[in-house]
Amino acid sequence: MTAVGIDAIEIRTGKLELDLAETFAPAKGDDPEKYTKGLGLHASSFPDAYEDIVTMGANAAHRLMERKGLTPADIGRIDVATESAFDNSKPVSTYIAGCLEQVFDEDFHHANKGERKFACVAGTQSIDDAYNWIRAGRHRGRSALVIATDTALYARGDPGEATQGAGAVAMLISEDPDVVELSTEQGFGSADETDFLKPNQQFPSVDGKRSVQVYLARMREAVRDFESVAGTIHPDDFTLLPFHTPFPGMVRKAAALAYRHTIRDTEIEEELAEDIGRQPRPEAFDSDEAYVDAMGEYTDELVETDQYRDWYDRVVDPTLEISREVGNWYTGSVHVARASGLKHALENDMDLTGATLGVASYGSGAQAEVHAETVQSGWEDEIAALNVDEQLDNRYSISYEEYEHIHDVHNHDKDTDAEAEAFTPPEGEFVFDGWGRMGERKYRYVE
Ligand code: CAA
């Protein structure tokens, strides 16, 4: 069977940066370490006044196509995953195609376009759709452009405000991919949950503490479901484990449970038993509560062991390096985590060709998905072509007052667009260019 997977990746960050420890924490009267240590975040990315989900997605896709020497004829579908859409009918992919048609000679009239919604897991679902389309043989030799783009804003004063972010990840899904081949095996954990939702409103209704528990519960189901088709997972199976990363502290919790689950009945559990005992087993307890308490105590000790720390530092921590600087990108977050881990490997001269990644996506509402990916021989060139460090370094750092201004500019209920002043000059990129006759958003390319 021909390999199908991710052939190219581009990351586009919002051009503004809010420093959480230096700027946000003092304004909120918080200890900076709540952000840097507790949540694991240093900064958030925000879109400048002329940026939005369309410009970030189109700019990422444009760079990807230019770099790969592609024309619209090479693209058979454009799927956008977002939970920040501004139109309940016309998909964001049409706006992005419209942007790209301004800079390419050909059009995308032949391309199937759509928009995927299931909170943050929709980016992974769009990759799935592209994978299935290619596997079904309906692609006529073409590739799919998958764009995960979000402006993750919370109402001011919401606890989620600390985890905001904005950016897009564009991915090319093709036969014989250069970056990773996707496994056929997948695991799902999906349930009707009300942890985080936006019932026809821009800013989410969030039960933050519960959302953390729902993430863990659905992820646990997805891991078990994956094991039911792919076999029992051992912690050494995966060289990197990119998770959906609303904030790195969330991944720290998920990773501890993943490690605990995958060392059970292995030589690692036996080796650790000398120091911290074996994992509690439910049959040894009279009540669920006593079992859960004992598991909690075991986990607290487990994460302090050298074995766990070594595993975490090698397999999980590298996937969090970009996220720490940009915050939550919702649909793009797990794809940023994958890119971050690969970038770390490249910078540390690791030979990853043939290595296996375990990719764990999550979307509120709620669904987790787990699959494996095999790193392909072209990964180094692809990851070396990313300019994400340059983009991060060039961000304009906003004061708290400027943050409040830009938050208002992007608030759909506030009429600030007319006088919205940008903090950075646009150059060589698509920009928001006002409103059209039917309430549509308009875009133009700035040389
Ligand atoms: N030094 C070190 N650590 C500190 C600290 C300090 N001074 N002060 C606090 N901390 C730690 C806390 O102990 C806590 O860590 P633990 O959870 O490990 O105990 C962490 O920092 C955060 O502190 P709080 O729990 O007090 O923070 P909070 O209540 O203000 O907000 C939150 C946390 C509820 C997750 C909030 O950020 C939120 O609502 N976020 C949005 C929802 C979200 O991202 N949920 C994640 C799962 S859902 C999902 O993944 C989908 C999605 O993308 C939204």
From TrEMBL:
Signal peptide as annotated in the record: none
Keyword Transferase: yes
Positions of the Hydroxymethylglutaryl-coenzyme A synthase N-terminal domain: 3-175
A Pfam family recorded for this sequence: HMG_CoA_synt_N
GO biological process: isoprenoid biosynthetic process
GO MF, one example: hydroxymethylglutaryl-CoA synthase activity
Protein name: Hydroxymethylglutaryl-CoA synthase
Name of encoding gene: hmgB
